[in-house]
Amino acid sequence: MSLLPRLEIQSMAVCPHGGIDYAELEVLGIAPPDVLDFSANLNPFGPPPEVMKALCERHCDGPKLRVKRGVNEAISRYPDSEAGHLRRSLAKKLRTKAENILVGSGCTELIRLAALAYFGKGDRILIIEPTYGEYQVACQIVGASLVKQRLSPKDGFYWDINQTIELARQHCPRGVFLCNPNNPTGRYLSRAGFEKILGVCKDSLVVLDEAYVSFVDNAWSSLDLIQGNNLLVLRSMTKDYAMAGLRLGYGVASEEIISTLYRICPPWNVNVVAQEAGIIAINTEGYLEQCQIALREAKDYLVTELSDLGLPSLPSEANFFLVEVGDASQFRQELLERKILVRDCSSFGLPHHIRIAPRSLPECQRLIAAIKEMKHK
């Protein structure tokens, strides 16, 4: 007799994500380095130069014997399971205490830890869609029930706070997931709006996912709200500093919530190199600000050029935006054949939209040239 997993797992679909599908490229005969990736919402300018320089100096500088010894020391010992140095560095930068911070292997790990720690079978969890699919996955893993609010492209995915509050009062959810700015829409909820939601969810764990907040102009700070509220704020160094291959994120919450998450957090969940890179990155002054300026220019260029091509983008306060293109799957495929990747948003319930995360201006010009070629073929 075959061994079956729990019913919740049997019915659970794998959540699609942006980024390169290596198996797909192999079938197409395209080498991954040849693909220009507009599908992943990362800082396109890569990690701060200081990160690579410091890591190479620390582990790869000097005679061969020193190189071998440095690499061996880096990979042969267990990492600090509590990421103490990184947490203290984050605490100093965020003006909070290290006890209020938990470092994870990306925000997605922390999302699942929150669900495992606080949600159970039958608990109702409020999600505002379209949004990041891993919230639903985390809830399905623990058998929780979903209460969904669906925003409309006709309204530019404008956040209907009154409906959110009404649903919260009606269903008394055990948890609430809010992505701000939201993925894939890029809409950004004001502090006043968020405080209204937080105020009616006093008995809920509110997970505020701020993975892209570093790319928002004039973003408001949520960290002073963690005391006295059941609030878990998530941030992504993966997105900020283009370290997707290392996986690095962190959560900020009350000491009680952080202590609870620590109980079920896998030991050694953040590797040595990721911890070191994180420490160096957050101490790099001015890097994110420089990237924001270049990204703003590239985004403005794309929005204007796409509009001229009859492909207007939807309003977005983030470092990515949606474009209605008709058949999103076909549009993506035609671009991929030209070695350019965008995000087909069918998995978000938006089969007519693609998501674009701007890159450098010359790379954005290549994308526009490819789309012009597609429209005139």
What does this 3D model show about the protein?
This protein is an alpha/beta fold. It folds into 2 domains: 7-48 and 287-375, Aspartate Aminotransferase, domain 1; 56-282, Type I PLP-dependent aspartate aminotransferase-like (Major domain) (Aspartate Aminotransferase, domain 2, 3-Layer(aba) Sandwich), CATH 3.40.640. Helix content is 42%, strand content 13%. The protein is built from 15 helices and 12 strands. It has helices at residues 7-10, 22-28, 49-60, 64-76, 84-94, 107-118, 134-142, 161-171, 191-200, 237-240, 255-264, 272-282, 287-308, 328-336, 361-375; strands at 36-37, 101-104, 124-129, 145-150, 175-179, 205-209, 231-236, 249-252, 321-324, 340-341, 343-344, 353-356. A 7-stranded mixed beta sheet has the order 2-8-7-6-5-3-4, sandwiched between helices. It is globular and about 60 Å long. The protein starts with 6 loop residues before the first helix and ends with a helix.
